[in-house]
Structure formats: C-alpha cells, structure tokens
Inverse folding.
C-alpha cells in the first residue's frame, strides 16, 4: 500500500509528490498524459513561485531551461492605446509547460516517487481503511489521496464533489514564431470579443492565449491568424471552464490542490503559483497525517492553510475578471486615462508581489 497517491502530475501534483517523497513517504503519482506535453497556459511564472522552486531545489534548473525574460507588462486597449508597467528585474519569466512540468516530474522521480504516466484514474472509493483507486484495469491502494487533476478534477467528479462549472468563456493557446522586435514583455490585449495574452518563451517562440465566449472565439482566432500570419489550419489547444466554485474536501484523508481545489482568473497569471504552494501545503499535511496519525488535525490544518494562501489576493482576481468580461468598457477607461498607469502599477505590484 502507498502512503499517498497523487492524481495528476502538473505543477501541483509533481510538487506535492517531490515533497512527500523527500519526507520519506511511499508516493504514487498517476498521470493521464505522457510527458512532455503542452497545456493551455500563458507559460508565465509569477515571481511568487520562486520560493517554492528554491525549496524544491530546482530554481537554477528552471532558469537553465529555454525561457523568455519578462521586463514589463503592456496593457493594450481596443484601438491600440498602450499602458506599460515595469516588472521586478529578473523575477518573471515564461517557460513552456512541456519543459517546466517535465522538470518538476523529474524532480519527483529523483525524490523517489513512483510515477505512472498514460494512467487515467477512473474509479475511487474509500474502503478497508484505504483509498481504492481504479486506473488502467488495476486497483491501487493508498492511505491518502491528493487530487491534483486540474480544473475538471476527475477525483472530485467521481466523488460527487465537482461544482457545476460556468461555460461562459473558453481558453485557447498555441505557440507561434516570435515576431521580430516583440521585446521582453507580456502583452495583455483587450479585443472587442475578449482578450489575448502573449509572452515570449525562448527558442524563438511566442505563447499566444485567447479568451472569449464560445460564440466569439472564431473571431479571436481570425484576429490572431492575421496578427501572427497563421494559416486557417493552425491548431489550438482549448480548455474550459475558466471559472467554477472551489471544491471542498469531503474526507479527512483527501486533499485537493491547484486548479482541482480552486480556479482563478487566468488574466493575472497566478495559477502555477497557487498550484506549487498548495502542493507543498498538502505534502506537509500528508506527512503530518502519516507520522502523527491524527488525520482530522492534519485535514483541519490543511484547510486553514489553503484558505490563508488565497486570502488577501483574490480581490485582484475579481477586478481582473470584471475588466476582462467587459473589454469595451475597460478599453474606454484605459483610453480616457481613467485607469491611470499608477493604478495599474499598484495592481500589478500586488500580483507579482513587489
Ligand atoms: C488561458 C489560460 C492561461 C493561463 N496562463 C497562466 C500563466 O501565464 N501563469 C500561471 O501561473 N497560470 C496560468 N494559467 C493557470 C494555470 O495553467 C493553472 O493554474 C495550472 O496549470 C494549475 O496546475 P495544476 O497542477 O493544478 O493542474 P494542471 O496543470 O491542469 O495539471 C493537472 C494534471 O492532471 C492530469 N489529469 C487530469 N485528470 C486525470 C485523471 N483522471 N487521471 C490522471 N491524471 C489526470 C492532467 O493530464 C494534468 O497533467 C492559465 C490558465 C488558462 C486557462
């Protein structure tokens, strides 16, 4: 029997697996895909990620990956007016998720976690004082389960705990050739139908994300095709929902982490930060639960620490969501200089922890 089974090897799951294995637990990490794989994401690492990456001992290895340096954010209104905000020096970078997630997975393996890729969890139940996990025609046993399986969490769905999601918007993502003179910047561009985020990821590539209501996404794809000289057949990865209520764990030996626990507005580029931190917090809870044997206390402590992680940051997320849901109104405010650079600087500083 494993001490901990972690479902999903994204940043939340791989981080949790590495910390659990470092602490000497028997760890099983189950992943549906085969890595390396890309993911719908802006690829931007918020500077608040670095403390966890340092504690994992991978910060230098991440900086050695192909990456784009991000020195400023350009907010671009419909019609082209631009407001620039500087980012802290050398703090924010963009790395392709295929490279970033692979490195974290390698770190988990180095720590001693058993990793099974191309393994989709399809059943889960608590019986005989352990979790019984059905994956690839096999039943695996673990004392604790960590659900790190993203915004459409199968674990939450299988346990009847996945809240109904809003399908009001869809996210698309791709990598394109980096336009000449793009510069070391993130572009957050409001468009009549939604918005686009763009960030250089190194290796001569640019990450392009599009977010809009499903009925408007074709218009955004047409805009991107023209802006970046893409063919009609250019393929985009897609994801939904961009918003849903948080999941609450229903069992004291079950922890939800990253997007599986709570989905935040992509515009602020904080999802990986929450994934890494909640993965670390869940590992501490799992270690305490196994070592001290007090499951209820460990579950209470995790719930409190998880709540604390989001407290004081979510209001920026709400502002961002309001802004992106009304791109025309936000553009008008930007053009009329009602949203002053100083205000954008203050909000950005809150997000990047300056
Ligand atoms: C358009 C967009 C842009 C974004 N841009 C940024 C950004 O620039 N910066 C940022 O920090 N965040 C960004 N985010 C958010 C970020 O992508 C997520 O918050 C982050 O990926 C969450 O990590 P995670 O480990 O919780 O989940 P995920 O990265 O989703 O990983 C979950 C893993 O679980 C696996 N899985 C799922 N189901 C099963 C199953 N049944 N069995 C086994 N495995 C399973 C999946 O294959 C996947 O590998 C963006 C999001 C969107 C939608």
């Amino acid at each position: 029997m494993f001490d901990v089974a972690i479902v999903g090897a994204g940043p939340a799951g791989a981080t949790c697996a590495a910390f659990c294995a470092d602490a000497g637990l028997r760890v099983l990490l189950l992943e549906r895909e085969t890595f390396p794989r890309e993911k719908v994401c802006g690829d931007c690492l918020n500077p608040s990620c670095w403390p966890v990456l340092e504690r994992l001992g991978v910060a230098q290895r991440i900086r050695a990956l192909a990456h784009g340096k991000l020195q400023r954010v350009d907010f671009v209104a419909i019609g082209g007016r631009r407001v620039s905000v500087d980012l802290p020096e050398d703090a924010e970078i963009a790395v392709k998720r295929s490279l970033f997630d692979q490195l974290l997975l390698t770190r988990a393996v180095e720590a001693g976690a058993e990793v099974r890729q191309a393994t989709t969890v399809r059943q889960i139940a608590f019986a005989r004082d352990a979790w019984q996990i059905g994956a690839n025609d096999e039943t695996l046993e673990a004392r604790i389960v960590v659900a790190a399986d993203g915004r459409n969490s199968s674990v939450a769905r299988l346990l009847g705990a996945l809240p109904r999601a809003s399908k009001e918007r869809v996210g698309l993502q791709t990598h394109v050739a980096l336009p000449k003179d793009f510069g070391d910047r993130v572009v957050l561009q409001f468009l009549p139908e939604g918005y686009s985020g763009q960030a250089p990821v190194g290796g001569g590539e640019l990450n392009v994300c599009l977010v809009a209501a499903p009925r408007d996404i074709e218009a955004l794809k047409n805009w991107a095709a023209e802006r970046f000289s893409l063919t009609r057949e250019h393929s985009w990865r897609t994801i939904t929902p961009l918003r849903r209520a948080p999941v609450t764990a229903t069992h004291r030996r079950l922890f939800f982490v990253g997007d599986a626990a709570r989905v935040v507005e992509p515009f602020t580029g904080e999802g990986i930060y929450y994934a890494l931190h909640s993965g670390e917090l869940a590992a501490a809870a799992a270690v305490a639960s196994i070592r001290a044997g007090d499951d209820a206390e460990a579950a209470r402590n995790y719930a409190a620490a998880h709540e604390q992680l989001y407290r004081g940051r979510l209001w920026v997320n709400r502002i961002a969501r309001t802004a992106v849901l009304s791109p025309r109104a936000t553009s008008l405010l930007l053009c009329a200089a009602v949203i002053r650079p100083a205000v954008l600087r203050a909000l950005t500083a809150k997000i990047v922890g300056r």
